[in-house]
Amino acid sequence: MKVNLKVWRQRNGNAQGKLVDYQLDNVSPDMSFLEMIDVLNGELTMKGEEMIAFDHDCREGICGMCSMYINGRAHGPQTGATTCQLHMRSFSDGDTIVVEPWRARAFPVIKDLMVDRSAFDRVVQAGGYVSVNTGSARDANETLIPRPIADEAMDAAQCIGCGACVAACKNASAMLFVAAKVSHLAVLPQGQAEASLRAEKMVAQMDAEGFGACSFTGACSVECPKSISLDHIARLNREYLGSKVTSQAI
Amino acid sequence: MNLESKIPEGPLAEKWSRHKFGLKLVNPANKRKYDVIVVGTGLAGASAAASLAELGYNVKAFCFQDSPRRAHSIAAQGGINAAKNYQNDGDSIFRLFYDTVKGGDYRAREGNVYRLAEVSVNIIDQCVAQGVPFAREYGGLLANRSFGGAQVSRTFYARGQTGQQLLLGAYSALSRQIANGKVKMYPRTEMLDVVVQDGKARGIVTRNLVTGKIESHAAHAVLLCTGGYGNVFYLSTNAMGSNVTAAWRAHKKGAFFGNPCFTQIHPTCIPVKGDYQSKLTLMSESLRNDGRVWVPKTKEDAEKIRKGQLKATDLKEEDRDYFLERRYPAFGNLVPRDVASRNAKNMCDEGRGVASTGLAVYLDFADAIKRDGQKTIEAKYGNLFEMYEKIVDDNPYETPMMIYPAVHYTMGGLWVDYNLMTSIPGLYALGEANFSDHGANRLGASALMQGLADGYFVIPYTLGDYLATIGPADKVSVDNPAFKEAEANVKHTIDRFLNTKGTKPVDTYHKELGHIMWEYCGMSRTAEGLAKAKKMIQALKADFWQNVRVVGENEEMNQALENAGRVADFIELGELMVDDALAREESCGGHFREEYQTPDGEALRNDAEFAYVAAWEYKGENKPEVLHKEELVFENVKLTQRSYK
Ligand SMILES: Cc1cc2nc3c(=O)[nH]c(=O)nc-3n(C[C@H](O)[C@H](O)[C@H](O)COP(=O)(O)OP(=O)(O)OC[C@H]3O[C@@H](n4cnc5c(N)ncnc54)[C@H](O)[C@@H]3O)c2cc1C
Ligand code: SF4
Ligand code: FES
């Protein structure tokens, strides 16, 4: 099949960017979207042009590195999938496909389709952990965690930190990402001691990074490749309010 | 040079405790006077960096991804082993040790493997304390499954995302130390050389992948936790960025490379579809607990299936060959990976492979679904089935999955002693980057265990001994000529890539190398094929340096440039792997030399001559490497032919 691509090209964070047209013939429907870009990059190199820069690593939907905004949707038309899990069979012969980077103030563009998501790391550094040193743990079976609780924690812990939730949100809010981490640790007994403090610190860092406010439209959860539920935002709000009553951090 | 493994004296079960007691300690107040560099923040690196920082050392950590949370460890699906014996099914530290030594076809060190089994139990405790949501029973106790042919249930798991959850645990510990100011993290930074001065590792040279800046970092010790080199085959289950560069450049600076030809081909991956394919996807081994592997009994039926004239479900029971169950009645579909892979290949070589390419066998869940119901199967493997359907566009609940072996893991790596130190003092290797514990074949769920054992529970002890011995003053500044020279070399190589202005993209060379390695140094190897491969690789190398095309500049994000360096190193490593495979005139584990097999086609070891670790020493550009042998001593297990019949 043939596709017409409009791809965002931007030399670096300070340069102006624009959409550039490319045409690819001979696309196989079994190719993944990223393999299609690989083919295009091979052709560009042969012509002496620079490859399109984009983040990717595992190519199986788990590392959270790939991050393309395709035809107006984070990770493209499929739901519950990352860009690297998208295949060309989701498109038709002759389609025009617009490919852009995540757009958010807290995610500045590095080059072309690649953005800087280190804000997420700093939000985790603010408190997304249980304070325990190596070697000081007790036997794992001494902490009983009933299956439904473990399952709930796992549902939240599945977040891959891709940032699609931010890209999908009109306010570029990071609430779903932050809520997933807060919720994962808040439901487990190991994480409860620090639950409120954690919520407070992570939310403060989220604000400091320039992510927008949450207006609870749910766009994030729809585009989230791991289908992280909005319920976690409700839990985050509860923990956060609790922290305001007994504020220790700020 | 004398290869000293430094395995402690004494009874097996006491070696590690005695050794720990004998190690020098760094006084708590002095720890802050030492700087440690950790390259790589996967399971091994993140756990090491966090634990060392908690002890008080100043750590600098590096990774090439945009965040430590994205290391390739994140992709591990199946689980992590530990000798907890929570299921009361006869597991013990000794049994885990024994299974691992046997599974590795008796090419690993007893002492190392025993220590691994011993600390495995602490790993689970540590991870649970961090909040890793392992699977649980209704009563709240941890759940286990049997995995990778083990006859006890000792595998802990978090759905099909065990690696992700373990890595996020280690990443959270690391993040806490970054916040504490004890770790300085350098993401999107690639290590391009190790600096050795006066016989010791003194630091590294890196390239900032966003700005292209070349920089030196000095420290008292350097830990390479940079993962495996499976991508030397181009197509593998590894992440696209996994590479050998850090290990290879250390090798060229004097670190010996151990058993480079020991690579693991995993039996259950989604088969190759086309030329454009960039990576292969693993279907977790746990699927073999319920799936039955088969091909058509006759070539004629297989031919019809390949042409699309017949469907798998059309074939009657008696027309199917469940070849693993037939050949290995005791273990059936659960034979170790090397055995399962080789058998699948043999079936396809006989012309009984399926899929349009003829390079696939079936993994069939029909019986399991009939027995346990679709709900149960869905609960166990739902996410894997979904993943399969997304990629192949076929519903595995209705038609059998198609699978084929793919490169998955590298048992070889930098040679290290019992303290995880390479042959360069002050340079350590942890996790998949070292050669240590898996011998010639790794059992399922034991790589995660090894990475975390090395990082959480081994290096915090053994590193202290070295640091206490050299003392805080024994550090070299980045102004030392050794650093300047290394920086100049790195820049020179980069300029060479950019100025060659040839005709072929880097990927073309990587694919070509992959073809050569897979064909001649893959699932089965011959002296003749290996000799041919060596010539082909040398020709490829010459062509690469003359005709490679890298567009763009150094002073910017340039993924073609990053890749050029990695592929150049893979090409050189490929040649060493071929040398190693040629020198090892026996079959063991994943290394199958066609000349050395039993009458019924099983691997034929030669313990009298080859019960050693091959440690290769680099001698300079285009000079043959020198083979050193570390004899393996077995005092606690009896060497037998592995039998899974
Ligand atoms: C699909 C898949 C499934 C698996 N499933 C299992 C399983 O179920 N159970 C199991 O036990 N094992 C499994 N394994 C194996 C296991 O995941 C790996 O062996 C293990 O995670 C390796 O961890 P590591 O820390 O050594 O390296 P990695 O996780 O590969 O980390 C390497 C790190 O080094 C960095 N790095 C590399 N080179 C450089 C450089 N030059 N400069 C700077 N940084 C660098 C990277 O950025 C990264 O941070 C699986 C492997 C695959 C491919
Ligand atoms: S919540 Fe979903 S969309 Fe947001 S970072 Fe996590 S996985 Fe990505
Ligand atoms: S490349 Fe890892 S999630 Fe897409």
Automatic annotation (TrEMBL), chain A:
<dbReference type="InterPro" id="IPR017896">
    <property type="entry name" value="4Fe4S_Fe-S-bd"/>
</dbReference>
<protein>
    <submittedName>
        <fullName>Succinate dehydrogenase/fumarate reductase iron-sulfur subunit</fullName>
    </submittedName>
</protein>
<dbReference type="Pfam" id="PF13183">
    <property type="entry name" value="Fer4_8"/>
</dbReference>
<feature type="domain" description="4Fe-4S ferredoxin-type">
    <location>
        <begin position="150"/>
        <end position="180"/>
    </location>
</feature>
<dbReference type="InterPro" id="IPR006058">
    <property type="entry name" value="2Fe2S_fd_BS"/>
</dbReference>
<dbReference type="InterPro" id="IPR012675">
    <property type="entry name" value="Beta-grasp_dom_sf"/>
</dbReference>
<dbReference type="InterPro" id="IPR036010">
    <property type="entry name" value="2Fe-2S_ferredoxin-like_sf"/>
</dbReference>
<dbReference type="InterPro" id="IPR025192">
    <property type="entry name" value="Succ_DH/fum_Rdtase_N"/>
</dbReference>
<dbReference type="InterPro" id="IPR009051">
    <property type="entry name" value="Helical_ferredxn"/>
</dbReference>
<dbReference type="InterPro" id="IPR050573">
    <property type="entry name" value="SDH/FRD_Iron-Sulfur"/>
</dbReference>
<comment type="similarity">
    <text>Belongs to the succinate dehydrogenase/fumarate reductase iron-sulfur protein family.</text>
</comment>
<dbReference type="Pfam" id="PF13085">
    <property type="entry name" value="Fer2_3"/>
</dbReference>
Automatic annotation (TrEMBL), chain B:
<protein>
    <submittedName>
        <fullName>Fumarate reductase/succinate dehydrogenase flavoprotein subunit</fullName>
    </submittedName>
</protein>
<dbReference type="Pfam" id="PF02910">
    <property type="entry name" value="Succ_DH_flav_C"/>
</dbReference>
<dbReference type="InterPro" id="IPR036188">
    <property type="entry name" value="FAD/NAD-bd_sf"/>
</dbReference>
<dbReference type="Pfam" id="PF00890">
    <property type="entry name" value="FAD_binding_2"/>
</dbReference>
<dbReference type="InterPro" id="IPR011280">
    <property type="entry name" value="Succ_DH/Fum_Rdt_flav_su"/>
</dbReference>
<feature type="domain" description="FAD-dependent oxidoreductase 2 FAD-binding">
    <location>
        <begin position="35"/>
        <end position="448"/>
    </location>
</feature>
<dbReference type="InterPro" id="IPR015939">
    <property type="entry name" value="Fum_Rdtase/Succ_DH_flav-like_C"/>
</dbReference>
<feature type="domain" description="Fumarate reductase/succinate dehydrogenase flavoprotein-like C-terminal">
    <location>
        <begin position="510"/>
        <end position="644"/>
    </location>
</feature>
<dbReference type="InterPro" id="IPR027477">
    <property type="entry name" value="Succ_DH/fumarate_Rdtase_cat_sf"/>
</dbReference>
<keyword id="KW-0285">Flavoprotein</keyword>
<dbReference type="InterPro" id="IPR003953">
    <property type="entry name" value="FAD-dep_OxRdtase_2_FAD-bd"/>
</dbReference>
<dbReference type="InterPro" id="IPR030664">
    <property type="entry name" value="SdhA/FrdA/AprA"/>
</dbReference>
<dbReference type="InterPro" id="IPR037099">
    <property type="entry name" value="Fum_R/Succ_DH_flav-like_C_sf"/>
</dbReference>
<keyword id="KW-0560">Oxidoreductase</keyword>
